[in-house]
Amino acid sequence: MIRRILRFTGYAVLALTAISCTFDVPKKIQAKGSPTVYAPLGAQTFEISEYLGTDKISEMFTTGSDSSGMRVLTYKEAPTDETLKFLVYYPITEVDLDFASMTKGMDLEGKISAPVAEQSFAIPTVASSTENTVNINFMSDLLSTINGSMPALSLPVTEGVPVTEDTIDLPLSITGFDTATIGAGSLEVSFGTFAGASATFNVTLNSIRIMDGATEIATSGTSLVLVNNGVSQSGAATVPLTGKTLPKNLTLRLMVTVSGGSPEESHTIGITPRFTSDTYLSGASGISINQSAAIPDITVPLAGIDASFVNAVIGSGGLSVDSGAIPATWTGFTKTVSLNVSQSGGLNIAPSGTGAVVNADLAGSTISANDITISGSVVLEATNASFADMPSTGLSVTCATELEVTEFTSVTVVPGASFATSTTISEALPQEMIDWVDSVSFTEVGVRMYFSHNLPAANNFTVSVTSNALGLNSPAKVVDPVTNVATESRDVDFINTTLNSDTGNTPLKPGTGAGEVGTLDVTVGLSLGTYNSGANQLTLKNLVPGETYSFKATTEFVADWSKIVVNPQTGYSGNFPENAAGMDLSAIEDYLGDSIGFSEIPMYFYVGGLPGSLDVKFDCKLDAVYTSNSATITSSLINKTGADALSLSAEMPAFTTGITEFTGTVPEASAQTDLATVLNAKPADLKIAYDIKPNSVTLHPEDLESSSTLQAAMILVFPFELTVKSGGADIEFGEESALTKDLFGREPTAKDNEDIDKLLDSLSAVTLSLNLTNTTGLNGVSLVMTDGLPGGFRKELSLVSGPQTLSLTRDDVVYIQNHNPFIPKVLLHVNEGTVSVKPAGGVTLSVTIAAVTDFDQTFDLQGGI
User: Fold this and answer.
1) Rounded to whole angstroms, how far apart are CA atoms 493 and 499?
2) What is the pLDDT of residues 540-585, one digit of tens each?
3) Backbone dihedral region of 542: left (phi > 0), alpha (psi from -120 to 50 degrees) or beta?
4) What percentage of the chain reaches a pLDDT higher than 90?
5) What predicted TM-score, i.e. pTM, was given to this entire model?
6) Collapsing DSSP states into helix, strand and coil, what is residue 109?
């Protein structure tokens, strides 16, 4: 019971704050020898700001998308204001009547600029200059051919015919040359073996002479035993030939000594002549060869390429290989240079030629973005040819390779994501403009572009801007290139000067009917080169390698209006709050009942924002709409039409973002009313319906120089000042403070209540003492506990500052004992008159309970107490 009383005391002190408080209380009371037991229950402070703040008020209204601009502030009309007040500011609408300003809010310029945003393309350089030395040494193959064609010779020898130095001439015809000058090397003559010689037979080779007729060319004095005592022996003799010139028909003169053997026995010794492997010909005539050598591969990257490049068709460019001339002393030779130029997805050619320089025209060829590879070979051919002065390393050929592209007929690139050949921007006019503005006349309206590009004229750079709403339909215009894209630009205008009633033409008429404009549409068309939309590839013409080409444009939406005729057909209407449920104020009923209500809820309505010099009037209707007893109630708050129409407010309310408190007088409103009657009805679905309609007026630019935005807003002031009807009023606290079982926690069965019954039997009196400091402004208020029965239980505790007591006599205890369950209500009783809550108020209280008992026992008070 103690905890319940204290909780309800807290409710009573802060009647309108929905306060709930809990103290730690004794769980046991021990009584001995009929003493008076004192239990100090502690102290607590409650501040109104904890229970009534801007956040709580915001919760009542922050519903629907319209709450985004709403502000809730604590409010004082003056610094000395002693009544708690809240100010709710709600902006209803803003309409910018300056057509140019309105379009800036649509960001038309930014949206029109998007398709002509800067695009840049780096064109790669294709160039390479390389020298490679290739050695063509045909000597090995030539000697192999010559040696392979050497005839087999034989040396006849006879036994029994001794000869001291016999001369034997063997003719030697060499195939492969007519004459040959030996730069180095020898002729090797190899001798074979035979069988069947007599045991005493011997043959010795004394020397070999190479003869050209009777002329000795070279000789070898080497002695070589060919047969030794009947045994045939193989061997070889070499004839040095360095510096010698040989004809193709020679004689081998062998000087031989023969002894012993059987008479008239004849034998043949095989002879094989060949040039040694170290032999090379420094000159020759009558030769035939076909020798090739590879040219080292050359890789040519595309320099300065960027990711936008796809491929290009070469307009002018070429490949050349200068391999030099064949030596002047050489005749009958042909040199062929064969090349293979390859590139993945691009260039693939195979030029060749027999001159000193081989050229390939690359015009018309396509290159891709990949590296170019150049490979090839040099082939030396000769038939019955002659050469002289050749070193041992062979013929050295230097290949100077040049690759260069000087112009592209076309280049295909991938433009940036913003590129489009046609883009339509469509923006709906604000509904308020459609509803209120009859027409807009322009001296000029349209789009002005400032282009910069350096693309060659062959690309036929054109742009078009069309608009049904603005009457723009002129043909596409050519945009000429500039020299410096960073500093120069070309103006391209798409302007209509006929949307003007002052010149006898039809102005722009906002609306949704025939001939009216509900949507601003602008279509930007862009044409240059050839565009493949499926692949998103743009092909440009006549571009130079190594250059960077770009284009960009800035746009200006021109809306030079001369006259706006405001002639609304309908008003601007809506509800506050915007959500379907409205404001639920029925919870006030739980606290205030029917006998207490708000004294006043001032509501201020504003229409303004335009210069005060304008003669503009506004029809205005504001109604409070809510449901009562299943019927829709519409209560007129403001109804100003015709001659009573509202004038512009001299000043619109404005509250700096971030402030939480406003002190001062609100600006003078266009109209003012009081919502107290409506709020005191405690509706569960309150809406404020508004309908605003300006009268007909013609505006010119000079009229709106200082301000062009028409605004409507409302302010509600909630002063927590309540009126109590005659006889006072009891305020109930609803579910949170309602008891649902016996105050002492007694059960329906008597045996379960032995401890409580003993306690109640022992109590002769209970006194609750409070030491109270009340600065809330709630004066003339008391806490009431009653069971609501005629002549039943009712106790009252005053909540004025100072010491207060609430006593239960023995009769009260007996009454409670006899009523199980005993479930009293706790009410706040307020005397008739006006009750104000102070903004910085609060309550501090300390509580002591005294119980007079008549026996010794300890009671467990846990459970329901």
Assistant:
1) 16
2) 999 999 999 999 988 999 999 999 998 887 777 888 877 777 787 7
3) left
4) 49
5) 0.63
6) helix
Rounded CA separation 420/397 (Å):
55
Per-residue pLDDT at 15 exceeds 50: no
pLDDT for res 104: 78
Which stretches within 213-366 are classed as H helix? Answer: none
3-state helix, strand, coil in the chain (%, to 5): 15, 50, 35
Q: How far apart are CA 359 and CA 345, in angstroms?
A: 23
CA dihedral sign of residues 388, 389, 394, 396: negative
Q: Give me the pLDDT at residue 849, please.
A: 59
Helices (H), 33-138: 54-61, 99-106, 108-113
Question: Amino acid identity, residue 357?
Answer: V
**Distance from C-alpha of 854 to C-alpha of 614, rounded to nearest angstrom:** 88
For domain 140-285, give the CATH number: 2.60.120
In 77-212, where do the E strands start and end?
85-96, 119-122, 127-136, 153-158, 163-173, 179-184, 186-191, 202-212
- How far apart are the C-alpha atoms of 483 and 547, rounded to whole Å? 13
Confidence of residue 834 (pLDDT cuts 50, 70, 90): confident
Residue (of 801, 795, 737) closest to 765 by Cα position: 795
CATH topology of domain 100-117+418-566: Jelly Rolls (2.60.120)
CA distance 681 to 734: 18
- Portions of the chain given CATH number 2.60.120: 100-117+418-566, 140-285
Residue 658: CA atoms inside 13 Å, Cβ hemisphere, count? 0
If you write DSSP's letter for every residue of 224-240 in order, what string do you get? EEEEETTEE--EEEEEE
Beta bridge partners of 558: 446
According to the model, what pLDDT value does residue 401 have? 96
Q: Residue 612 has what pLDDT?
A: 76
Cα 479 from chain centre:
32
Q: What is the mean pLDDT of the chain?
A: 84
CB 535 within 8 A of CB 528: no
Instruction: Give the type of residue at 296.
Output: P
Asked whether residue 35 carries a pLDDT value surpassing 60, the answer given is no
Residue with tokens 């207490």: 596
Which of the pair, 261 or 800, is modelled with greater confidence? 261
Beta bridge partners of 729: 830
Let me know: does 85 contact 74? Beta carbons within 8 Å.
yes
Q: Say which DSSP state 78 is in.
A: S
Q: Are 399 and 298 in contact (CB under 8 A)?
A: no
Helix (H) / strand (E) containing 492: strand 490-496
Task: Please determine, for residue 736, whether its predicted confidence score (pLDDT) is greater than 80.
Answer: no
- The first and second tokens of residue 294, run together, are 């590879």
Q: How far apart are CA 333 and CA 382, in angstroms?
A: 4
Q: Side chain identity at 686, as an amino acid letter?
A: L
Total residues found in the chain within this entry: 865
Pairing assessment for the beta strands 215-220 and 153-158 based on DSSP bridges: unpaired
192-219 residue pLDDT tens: 999 999 999 999 999 999 999 999 999 9
Band (382; pLDDT cuts 50, 70, 90): very high
> Which residues contact residue 644 at a Cβ distance below 8 angstroms, ignoring those fewer than 6 apart?
none
The residue type found at 383 is T
Q: In whole angstroms, what is the distance from residue 320 CA to residue 326 CA?
A: 18
Cα 162 to Cα 252, 259, 498: the distances in Å are 22, 4, 137
Residue 117's pLDDT band (cuts 50, 70, 90) = confident
Mean pLDDT score, 821-840: 76
Count the neighbouring beta carbons within 10 Å of the beta carbon of residue 753.
Answer: 20
H helical segments located in 403-469: 431-436
Q: Give the pLDDT score at 682.
A: 85
Q: CA–CA separation, 833 vs 830, rounded Å? A: 9
| 140-152 exposure pattern, b = at least 16 Cβ within 10 A, e = fewer | eebbebbbeebee
